[in-house]
Amino acid sequence: MNLDKLKYKPVKILPNLGEITSVSPSNIALVKYWGKKPVQIPTNPSISFTLKNCHTQTSISFKKSNSFTFDFYIDGKPDTSFIPKIDSFFNRIKDFTPFLFKYQIQINTKNTFPHSSGIASSASGFSALSLAITQLEQKITDISNEDKFLKASYLSRLGSGSASRSLYGPCAIWGHHEDINNSNNEFAIPHQDIHSVFKNYQDTILIIDKGVKKVSSTDGHNLMHDHPFSKERFSQAKKNLKETISILKKGNLEKFIAVTESEALTLHAMMMTSNPYFILMKEGTLSVIEKVWEFRKSSDVPLSFTLDAGANVHLLYPEKYKQSVLNFIEMELIVYCENQQYICDEVGSGANIIKENYA
Ligand code: DP6
Fold first, then answer.
1. Does residue 230's CB lie within 6 angstroms of at least one atom of ligand 1?
2. Which residues in 47-77 are b (16+ Cβ under 10 Å) and which e?
3. What is the rounded CA–CA span in Å between residue 131 and residue 155?
4. Fewer Cβ atoms within 10 Å of its own Cβ: the N or the C terminal residue of the chain?
């Protein structure tokens, strides 16, 4: 991949101070990224639905300074728990964004989804932060809008792999696949060729467990290195990606259900067969899966599930079945949700800048 377009080429002088606010959503993978090499290179390609309601809003305010410093706030309060991750992110991006290091910056962030809901904020968080940074770059360079998003996806990947996909909706592909034009390991590309049924596909997230995961995604990815089934898994993911692209285009719900549920269970099967092995699903996760299968058999609703690296269950279905699925959740699934909590989301269009000012 020729990464020349990612180089910083200033043509104007840096503003003395300013503030940029961006919004970026979470995403849910249909074909899962699980396994990576340094630095943040996926061992298989993945595709996701970009979400709409679960998002992060991030403002960076910056002031010229002789030394770079940053402060981080969540919901208006200083937070130190994310500092090491953000610090390593800044180290990774510094050669691409030298302008950033001429400032003292303050990062203010808030999520629309509850802080401890088991929903990872790293995808929406790093993509929102990266887009705010490339927006500042656009202020002082001739970078096009298209390349601004491309670079934001590249930077996001260095924060968290799945974050690279959050920039674009309704779907995004990250990782090289020889049959997919422009697909590559460094940044995600938008995927828009989808049937109308998927344009507002619903994702209702059942919060089965709010707790902190016993094994982080990063540790889980690393366990794929010596995994006995990794080779098979990586080629299966490639095959599933091609199939998913065709399913998304044709709107074939039966096949959609088969591939996405298989992906979810394979992801967790990889965890259960790692060395050391681990399980992130909870009893409630399995009970919900059983109930979904029963419901699908006894109704004509093409409801399916997927999982990320945790116990929560994402219920996927066409918009026209929203009321019947919500009734089903209220009647039969809510007992498995921690504090009866679930979040209604749907396919969305990606990240945006909502405010900027400079002096
Ligand atoms: C199971 O992107 O959270 O959700 O790159 O280490 O930050 P890091 O991992 P992360 O992994 C996401 C894994 C997944 C599948 C997916 O989103 O594709």
1. no
2. bbbbbbebbbbbbbbbbeeeeeebebebeee
3. 9
4. C
Respond yes or no on whether the N-terminal peptide bond of residue 39 is cis (omega within 30° of 0).
yes
Task: Residue 140: name the closest of 321, 356, 310 by CA.
Answer: 356
pLDDT tens for 284-327 read: 999 999 999 999 999 999 999 999 999 999 999 999 999 999 99
Query: Does residue 211 contact residue 119 with C-beta atoms inside 8 Å?
Result: no
- Gap between the Cα atoms of 287 and 306, Å rounded: 14
Q: Tell me how far the alpha carbon of residue 283 lies from the centroid of ligand 1, in angstroms.
A: 23
Percent of the chain that is helix, strand, coil (3-state, to 5): 40, 25, 35
Whether 46 is in the pocket of ligand 1, judged by its Cβ within 6 Å, is yes
Ligand 1 mean position, distance from CA 249 (Å): 25
Residues whose CB is less than 8 angstroms from the CB of residue 93 and which lie 6 or more positions away in sequence, other chains included? 100, 130, 133, 155, 158
Contact 259, 247 (CB under 8 A): yes
Residue with the smallest CA separation from ligand 1 atom 7 is: 160
Residue 280 neighbours by CB distance under 10 Å: 22
Convert 116-134 to b/e letters by CB count within 10 Å (16 or more is b): ebbbbbbbbbbbbbbbbbb
Look at residues 65, 70, 58 and name the one whose alpha carbon lies nearest to residue 19. Answer: 58
Q: How many CB atoms lie within 10 A of CB 268?
A: 20
Q: pLDDT tens across 329-358, in order? A: 999 999 999 999 999 999 999 999 999 999
